[in-house]
Fold these 2 entries.
Entry 1:
Amino acid sequence: MEVPRRGRGKAMAVDAEEINLYEILGVEKSSTKVEIKKAYHKVFSPSALSSHPDKVPEDERPEAEMRFKAVSQAYEILHDDEKRRLYDTHGMSAFDPSRGNGMDGDVDFDDILSHMFGMRMGGQPHPGFGGGPMMPRKGRDEEKKYEVTLEELYKGKTTKFASTKNVICNICKGSGGKEKAKPKTCATCHGRGFTQGLRSVGPGLVTQETVMCSSCKGAGKLFKERDRCRKCKGDRVIEKTNFLEIYIPRGSKQGDRIVLSGEADQEPDQEPGDLVFVLSEIAHERFTRAGPDLTAHLEITLAESLCGFSRVVLKHLDGRGIHINHPRGHILRPSQVLKVPGEGMPIKKSDAKGDLYLIVDVIFPDDGWLKADDDATVMKLNELLPKPKKQISAETVDEVEYEAGASLEEFGANSDDPRGGSGWVDEDEAEDIQCAQQ
Ligand SMILES: [Zn+2]
Ligand SMILES: [Zn+2]
């Protein structure tokens, strides 16, 4: 269930390389840094102030804003040797934030393009353009982690819970004002709903970015104190608690998304975003899951490994006992794997299930099970159990000392021979070792 994020995208779309930054600044491609700087300052000179966003008529403002933003952006790239080189070689795609390089800022080239060149990079037009506030069509989705046990994923689960979210005020219907009251244009943003802020994008580099006006919360209009809606105090939204239900289908897995359409916070003039629960599987003490399959350990005694058994070996995720009948004559060895078809996890939207892999653990008797002086049992066991096939003969024989609890991690560990130790030490470990040695 992949849910694409909506709202105003900040990544540029494909045709972005067609932007000509030299053209935006009005300079030649061969121009020097000084010339670029001059061109940039000319735009912001007193003689050019008539086109400054704050000086133009209201309905031309967004366009003037965009022009200024584009010029700033062009300058930011072209007056930086490294960025200019990148731009000359790769075009604007070098600064595509989705590729993880260049400027990671909230540079909305979609807007720049549509206003500079009358192009639009896909999607529907923003409502409210032409003087009004810029608002994404759809509100932000809200993501929440939802922890589930393997049992719940096996059986499926429906759960109800209380959820508090913002909804449009029912008294003022989202206007924020009393009936018949007239809002006035927000003084902070001049009715635009957003303001320009400067943000540092590197040493000595700033970029302009558009942020929602904090005074009017993007509405562009405000009510006087006494004209504000009594219920929401002019906020236009109120908090509301309602009961939601989510259904987790059996066989769901880690990372699955349960989407409650339109259940995120509401904002006036916006379609509310979705409330999304992202499933997070809690590790299980008996079972390990990989896709539709499960593994578990099958603990048997030494006698069972030799003689066979018929018993319940495991309790499944739905509480059923799993009975295994292992006949005499087939010895089960440590780490041997038994595959039980159809006893894995359910597969979503079907009646099929994955498989269960049982890994044999032979529980050997404890030390001391055989008393040192119990010669009778030793004789009996030696009689019962198979003898070594062949004695090793050698001319010289040394009886040696040994440690019984050694680890192969130590084997060759102090050499750079890749066949030794754990074979490979990762950087973090290497660092830890160095620290410990100092
Ligand atoms: Zn209200
Ligand atoms: Zn405002």
Entry 2:
Amino acid sequence: MWNTFRVRCGQEEKMYVVVICIKLLLQACIDKAGEISRWLMRLVALSKYEIIEWRRERVTSSDGTQERGVVPTSVNYHFTRQCNYKCGFCFHTAKSSFVLPLEEAKRGLKLLKAAGMEKINFSGGEPFLVNRGEFLGKLVQYCKQNLKLASVSVVSNGSRITEKWFKNYGKDLDILAISCDSFEEDTNRLIGRGQGTKNHIENLLKVRNWCKDYQVAFKINSVINRFNVDEDMNEQIRMINPIRWKVFQCLLIEGENAGEEALRHAETFIISSKDFQRFLDRHKEIKCLVPESNEKMRDSYLILDEYMRFLDCTQGRKDPSKSILDVGVENAIKFSGFDEKMFFKRGGKYTWSKADMRLEW
Ligand code: SF4
């Protein structure tokens, strides 16, 4: 009987150990799930890139040379250069006040869609300034409802957005990114992120709540520079809980924020890669942080200016192609300087449609 009792206890202990092990394993899996899914996404994106490359290499033109056309999967259209803020490092400055007529902008977007565009990001300048946000709203609506793009996003400083805009256009917008470099108003003022007595952080929080109410995924973009590099933003970012926190290393672009012709002079804002890494290390527990060093950032974006010309940044300045409205996407994109491999490597392709994000609103 004693022996039977010991055997039973031994079996129970073993069962207990097995259950604990399974529990720990499950916990570890849950903890790592986010990380693993991000890695898988990147792996899928890179494989997709390799397949596109392989297909391209099989296509040869009549003279036997290889055709290596770039697909404009994700495009950033800076339709205005005008802005109400004066950020000292701004790298898309108000060098012109030109904005295309709405129908011309739509024609260009249709050409991009035909060339393979899946995601459009509207940016500036401040995109909500043109016709009090109506121009932007119409483009957002057109891209979602007519072109049926998987993802439509906007980058804004957040100061001119109204609830009425969300009511009219929110359902067609997947992601709204608000630029915020500091949670200390004095630092924002020092940087130039602000206008008059308006409080940038209060605006940010107001817009964040509207995003929740009108079901738009919320993102934050921060440029790390000499004035915010020592700041600890962990608490505020956790509280705001954006779907993505893009953290850029301040970048110099000749003719925009550096050099004689430039409207801004950001030399005093620049930080070293080591300092940038220090900032990233301080925020390494934030899961949604997406870092972008100068190297990752410079050529991995397809940028269209207000005339719908691709801007080539490979020489450290923005050299424009001809407009896609005049020569078509395929001809213009050859002069974009776009590094497609780096685009996939930096995780440029991610879950960018709000329908796929499974967000709790
Ligand atoms: S808010 Fe953006 S576009 Fe406006 S000045 Fe600042 S960086 Fe430039």
